[in-house]
Amino acid sequence: MDDEVYLAGDVDSIQDYVFETSSLPQIRGGSALLQRCEDAIRDEKGSLRSRYGFEVLYCAGGSFLLKVKRDLAPAVKREIEQLYRNETLTVTVTVVYEDGPVVAEQPRLPADGLDGWALRLVNAARASYEGGDFPLRMAHLMARLREAKQSRIHVPFFQAHPFGQRCNRCGKRMVVHIDQELGERLCQVCHRRDNEGRRHADGYDLRGKFNREFWDVYGSGRRPKQPADLDTLVQKGTRGYLAFLHADGNDIGRLLGRVRKDSDYKSLSEALIKVTKDALYDALNEVCRDQLEGENTWPFDILNVGGDDVTLLLHGGYAWEVAVKFLEKFEERASQHMREIMRWDDTGTDAHVTASCAIVIADVKFPVRYMQRLTKGLLGKAKRTAKARRSSALTFLWLPEPVASEHVEPLLSAYETRLGGAERISLLGRPYTLEQAGVLLEASKELARQPRSLRHRWQEVLSKGVMISTSLIAYDIARRKRAEQEVMLTTLERLAVTLSPGASGSRQLSPPVWVLDTSSSDGGPAWRTAFMDALELAELHAMRPGWESEVSGG
Known about the structure:
The protein is of the alpha+beta class.
């Protein structure tokens, strides 16, 4: 084995640390402290790399992969663990490195009579051994990392006495600092996060590394006015709904597993980071352009951009369009870089990079940690759709009223109804592929131009059944002018096609508000509609600052 070994690390419970409170400075500060640790690892002239001389193959989003001298690996491990502890006070990081030879001979694996998980495990093991030395070493190292994370038993904490006053932010740790200006009593951890979240970098009026990077690209001629808190972020809209958006690449690990050399791994990782940033910054500038001009407050705050991972908070009215634009740009650019770096000349599914996105929209007072956990559940559903359809996928959940829940299933079940007998209706079409999401976006913009009272009436009647809702919507459309009728019917037809391409195997009514889905494996056939999704997104779209939604004849 070489004199150099690979060292991998992953931050533990990163979301719990960043979203421990719902204060924007706290969230922004927690993210910034973690990014400072990554910057210390990446910095070629910094203390760590100057002393240990390791090579950084990947470092973003709370994970890293380094190439270090074998005899220096234990020291690098200790230094990085201490770095995170010193900067954040509570965050731990799991670090492992190669400490022995990898078995090069492929084990005898059964090939017949297997299905499900067993077959996938066999195929994954075989692919690792057939890929060469680097993929095999990575497979073993990542397995050790997962094992180490699962076996961690010690988590640092601050002792809190029963008689000690609790922090105004987290409500868990004891107060050690009183902020006279803000009138708040903070624990040591929250005080550090708060200071970092309110701190301006040299030469900038902006807080947050990725917000500053966005400004470097699109700030020329503009005057930045960053939101000081979440209330300010959404205050320009007609109602205060905040969106939590999380996007993540699909099956990126499998694509990286096909890399044969660490130099290609490094090039691909750097390309993914750049592509993800560029796609997000371009999408935000394109969608939020009006609010970035003049004295307006930015309607978003970028919390993190990892290798293929994006997390941001933004005004609820912009979320769906930002997600669609981001995925369109990410797909195109990431796929191009993948083909160039991997030297693939094909345009098949292996060379096509996709991502999934989940959005939770709720009142600005809703706990952000709940939004994050709901987004995690939604993202899993989007990824399953992406895998089945081999496309990028999006989904969302809007909570008009606050509900204290961390699980999406009970909330989504409210859209499923059985109306007597065998008739079952579903008011959900989501998750959507990227192409379908684009159709839904255009439909929501058209519906946002309709009177709000009409949109609300349609939302209410959809839950009353197929025939009643179809009849009322047909009546309302018939009352419109001829040109408006044609636009609405075209919108409904396009939405119906998103659920049943070509109307194959389904029975449609006129107007096509509902589609009979006979492919459902749970509970038999069901009537489904994408109209409710479009109406909800239209309602959110109409909350944008300055949006004129009412039309004559409502």
